Amino acid sequence: MKRVLATVHVVSPSGAPSARPAAERVQFVAQSLQRLGFDIVRAGRFGVSVQADPRRFEQELGVLPGSATGVQAVSPRDPSLTELVDYLEVMPPSSLADT
Amino acid sequence: MTTAPRSTKDILPTLAALAATSAPFSPEVIAKALGVANSSLAELVLASDAAAKLLEAAAEELKRRTATCSRGGDQTPTLLGNSSVGIVQAVLSEGRLRARVSELEQRVRVVVSPRTRSGVRLKTIRGQEGRIALNDMRPDHEHLSQAVRFLEREGFTIERVGRFGVTASAPAKLVSELLRTPLAVAALKSPATDRAVRAFSQRLAQPGPDDLFVAPLQSISVVGSEICVSVDDFVFVPPPTPSVSAHPPSVSYPFLDRTQVRQILGLDAMHLDGSGVQVGIVDTGFFVDHPAFAERGFDFKAVDATEDQVGHGTSMAWNLLSVAPGSRLRGYVKDDASGAIERAADDGARVISCSWGWPDEQTFSILQLSIRSVIEEDGVAVLFASGNGDRFWPASHPLVIAVGGVYADPADRALQASNFASGFRSDVYPDRNVPDVSGLCGLAPRGIYLPLPVPPASLKDVSHHGFSFPDKDETGIDDGWIYDSGTSSATAQVAGVAALLVQSATNDGRDLTPAQIKQCLQASCTAVTNGRNAFGVPAAGQPNVAVGWGLVNAQAALHALTTL
User: Fold this and answer.
1) Can you tell me the ipTM of this complex?
2) Rounded to whole angstroms, how far apart are CA atoms A83 and A69?
3) From the CA of B199, how many Å to the nearest CA of chain A?
4) The pTM is what?
5) What are the tens digits of pLDDT across the range A10-25?
6) Cβ(B268)–Cβ(B294) under 8 Å?
7) Start-to-end CA span in chain B (Å)
8) Contacts of residue B489 in chain A, CB cutoff 8 Å?
9) Is B342 touching A (CB cutoff 8 A)?
């Protein structure tokens, strides 16, 4: 099955959707996801971009990215992540602005 | 930053004073003495007769100095001393060429043709090789051995003993003395870059380091028998013409070359080049080793994705560097779009160019947050393409600079909305019209319009090649060039102009916010009120939904900056 690239959104302490989480919090989530078998592409400002087999997403985050794109709420199996991540986002390949 | 060249009359005393010192007569020293930026010497030569004359004077001075050295004891003039004034001028104006000449001074390669078994000189059988038995053209074994021993005794390094010749190398001075012939630096031919004179000139383009080679003044081969009885000829083989040229192939239809693009965008008398400004470009990948980039010595690196299987990122980088050739361009792959944009900002970009998007204004939350963070928290100007017949997001995001397309007729420079470019009212953001401004973009069906370098045999090289215009671009399937455009190219062009604005503000000791950059660009556009965009929207009024405020003008934008 083709590997999926997705960004897991990290919740800020305030819980506000657009608030930026602390870098340490993002790093913790990245390390946790790596421990759970995800390849870390980048620990960013608002989330962690990861790549893995879709079954890994289903097993650890309770979502099956598959062919779906956009935002999906996650249910982490690891309790340490329950309060830290709320959704993941899968973006389809962008279109180039030429021929 | 360049300054206006001084007259030849002012320059000669400076050069004469330099010649009287022990300072090395290098481009860096010359540039410093003349009060111009070293990197601008080549541009000066191209832009100004006065600058060309002063470099010619520098070349003559160098010849005089090498001749003086020769009379003083060193009997063999340097390679450059024997070379044509044009080559000397070119070498003096660029450090990479001077470094290459230094390499050639130390190591000139020559192919030695030993006497053959049949006694026939290989040089004399050109065109008849098929009629002579292969074995008759092989070197006589004894003569081959003697030739190798002779070369080694004389100080040559034997690189290879082949089936028909010996490849050897030695310092230029040694080779010249042995063969009793002066050697000079020459350059491979390459077509003129300006279409107008291409039919009349073999070379107008500055040679690259790999174009230079060494050969005797009269012929690329020297008769060997008077030097070594076992050798028929010493042959100086020029480097082959690379399969990927640093210059685009000729085509039969109207297009805009790099010079014309710069003129139309208000860059022909531009004294800024983006120096000191880091620009991020997020795209499919980047072939930074394309000869088109290498020849011009851009500061262009791929932070990730040094491969570009599509060819889009490579060509967008060219668009941007055509406008801001002095900028520090860093490429990031767009697969993890929010990661790439954040990383570009973290690495110090002041401008980020993105020639892609999602149709139907499909939005993505985390990317949206990243874009907003980079713009509001880092003060980075982020540009996105409006699309080519699609309604692109993130172009419609209110904080970004959305770029549409204007077509300038190559014949008369008349401007009209490009019928290949998108312009629309956003369905997502209230009161948001796309684009804000426009760059240059070709016409439907494919926007084939601007010569752009791509990795040879990349997807775009293959998809564009062949006949005929306007569906194909008449280039080769793997020649490393396409003719293309779209709002992709327009976005990269405008990003280059944004870099010039940042440079100007920085030179004045001020910061420039992304909103101010957008404001300057919008306030200074050339109005475009002809034509319709890809959705049939007419370019009526200013601003309009077809082209925004119009076609960006760099010179006018810089002026607008002063009134901010």
Assistant:
1) 0.89
2) 23
3) 30
4) 0.69
5) 999 988 888 999 999 9
6) no
7) 23
8) 98
9) yes
